[in-house]
Amino acid sequence: MKSIVSTASNFMHKNKLWLLLAIIAVLVILPFFGLSSYLIRVLCMIATYSILALSLNLITGFMGQTSMGHAALYCIGAYAGALFSTRLGTNFWISLIAAIVVGALAGAFEGFVTMNLSGSYMTVTTLAFAQVVTMVAQNWTSLTNGPLGIKSIPRPTFFGIELTTNNGGLYWLVLAFLILTVLFVTAIINSKMGRAVIAIKEDELAAKLMGIETKRYRIAVVAIAGALAGVAGCYYAHMSRYVDPKVFSFDISMTILTIVIFGGLASIPGSILGAIIMVAFPEALQFLSEYRFLVYGFILVIMMRFRPQGVLGGLSKQPYKLPAGVKSKAREAAAQAKEA
Amino acid sequence: MALLEVNEITKVFGGLTAVDKVSFKVEPGEIVSIIGPNGAGKTTIFNMLTGVYKVDNGSINFDGKAIHNTSPQHIVHAGIARTFQNIRLFPNMRVIENVMIGNHINTKYGFLDEVFRTPRFRKGERECAQKAIDILESLDLGDQIDNYAKNLPYGMQRKVEIARAIATNAKLIILDEPAAGMNPQESEELMEFIRSLRDKGHTILLIEHDMNLVMQISDRIYVIEYGKKIAEGLPAEVAHNPRVITAYLGSGGISKDEE
Ligand SMILES: Nc1ncnc2c1ncn2[C@@H]1O[C@H](COP(=O)(O)OP(=O)(O)O)[C@@H](O)[C@H]1O
Ligand SMILES: [Mg+2]
Prior knowledge:
The structure holds 2 protein chains of 2 kinds. Chain A has helices spanning about 1-15, 15-30, 35-60, 70-90, 90-115, 120-140, 140-145, 170-190, 190-200, 205-210, 215-240, 250-265, 270-285, 290-305, 330-340; strands at about 155-160, 160. In chain A, helix 4 runs parallel beside helix 6 (about 120-140). Chain A contains 15 helices and 2 strands. Chain A has 2 domains: about 1-35; about 35-340, ABC transporter involved in vitamin B12 uptake, BtuC, CATH 1.10.3470. Chain A is mainly alpha-helical. In chain B, helix 3 packs across helix 5 (about 120-140). In chain B, the strands form 2 sheets. Chain B has a 6-stranded mixed sheet with strand order 6-7-8-3-9-10, sandwiched between helices. In chain B, a hairpin with a 2-residue loop joins strand 1 (about 5-15) and strand 2 (about 15-25). The interface of A and B includes residues 184 and 324 of A. Adenosine-5'-diphosphate (ADP) binds next to strand 2 and helix 1 of chain B.
C-alpha cells in the first residue's frame, strides 16, 4: 500500500507539468459536457473558495498566523467591486482593479494592526476585525445600503458579451482567476519572499536576526491576501448580483479556515481539494446544512488529532528543486550513481 | 581601530544587573572568547550586541559606527551574525533553505521580479543557492542540502547554524556556547572547526562556560562573573589569574562543566 502511494506520488512529481496541463484542459472544456447551470454554479463557488483559501493560506499556512476573520477581506472586496459597478457605473474590470486595490489596503491595515501579535492575540484580533467590518457594512447605510444590501449588480462582460452560468462565461472567468492565483502564490512562495515568510512561521526572532524585515513582510503578506480576497469578493458580487452583510458572516471565516486546515497548511493543492470538499459536501448533503458548524468542528478536531498537517500538507520527500545551473557535488554524485 | 568596541555596557532586569559596565574589543581576524559561569550574563551581552535587547548604558561600536539600540536587522546589515545557545534553525525547512535565508539580505531582486520570474530573479536565485551549497560543501555538509534541519543530528545542526551566519557575509560571527550539548570529542572537533573558520579569514567572538575548551583556540579571553568583567588577556594569563581561579573553583572548578 505504502509503495503504491509512493510510486504514484513519484509519478505525479515527475510528470507534474503534464498532469497540470491535462487537468486544466479538462476543466476548460467541462461546460461543454452539458452540466446543469446549478452544477456550474457549484463549480464557480468551489473556485471562489479556492482563491479565498489560497489567500488565507498565505497568512495561516505559510506565515503561521491564524486568522479567524478572513471573511472581512472578502467582504471588503465584494463591497468595493459592487459599489464601483453600481454607484460609479464602472465596468467589471475597472471594479475588479478597485476591489484589488481596496482589498490590499484593507489587508495592509489588518497586517499593520496585527504585525506584533501571535497566537490567540492574533486570532482574537482578526475575529474582532471581521466583526467591525460587518458592523460597518450594516450601519454605514448611506454607503452600503445597510442590511438591505446592494442589489442589481451588473454581470461581468468580456468584449461586450455578458458572462453567465448558462453560457459558461462566469465559470471560465473564475477558472482564469484561480489559475492566475495559483501561479501567483506559487511564484511568491518559491522565492526570497516565500522563504522569509516561512521563516517567520518557523522562528520569528531567528528570522529577524537574519536581517529579515519581519514586520514589513507581515504587512505585505496580509495585503497580498487582501488583494486576492478582493478578486474573490468582486467576482462573487458580480456573479450573485447581490451582496449584504450577512453573506460575509463568521460562518464564512470558519469555512475558509476549515478548508485551509483540512486541505493542508502551506499546501496549494490542499487549498483547492479542501474547497472542493467543503463546498460540495454541504450541497450534496443539504439536510446537514443546519449542522454545518457541527461538521466543521468535528472535521477540525479529527484533523488536529490524526493529521494536523492536513490531507495534502506536510513536508515534501522530493529533493529540493535547485535553480537551473546550480552545481552540487552531492547531486552530481547521485546522478552518476544512478547511471552506473 | 578595532572591528568591535564595546564600552561599559550595562543591562538591568528589574532589580538584577545582569551585565555591569562590561567593555571589550575584537580585532579583525581574531578569535576572542568570553567565558564565565552560567548566569554570568554572557548571553545577555550577545543579545545587546545583536539588537535583541537595548543597552541601559554604554555603547557598542562596530566598524566605526554606533550600533547599540538600533534593530537586529540593522546590525545584520552592518555585519554581525550569530548563533544561539539553544539552536534556532528553521526546523521544517531544508538545510539549503536555512542557509539561503542567511543570504536573504544579499539577495537583490524585488517583488515584481519574483512574480514575473525575470532574468534578474533567476540570476539572484541561482547565485543564492550556489552560495549556500558552496558554504555547506566547505563545511562538509554538501550531502545534507535536502534534509530538513530538524532531522539532522545535533552537531550538524550547530554547523548549519554557523553556515547560515556565514551566508550573511558577516564581518563578525558570534557563537553562543556552540559546544553546548556535545560530548568532549565533538566539542574538540568543533573547536578545531572554529579555528579553521578563523584561518579562512572569519573573525569570531565566542561564548563558552567551559574555560578549558577555548584555551587552545582563543587569541584573547575575557572573563565575566555576576555581570562584571573580572579578567582579560591571553589565555595563559587568564588561566593563572587568581580571581579567575577563585571564580571557577567557587562554581565547580576549572575542569568541570557547569550544569
Ligand atoms: N529576559 C530576561 N529577563 C530577566 N532576567 C534575565 C533575562 N535574560 C537573562 N536574565 C538573567 O540575567 C542573568 C544572566 O543571564 P545570561 O546572560 O543568560 O547568562 P549566561 O549566558 O552567562 O549563562 C541571569 O541571572 C538570568 O536569569
Ligand atoms: Mg547563556
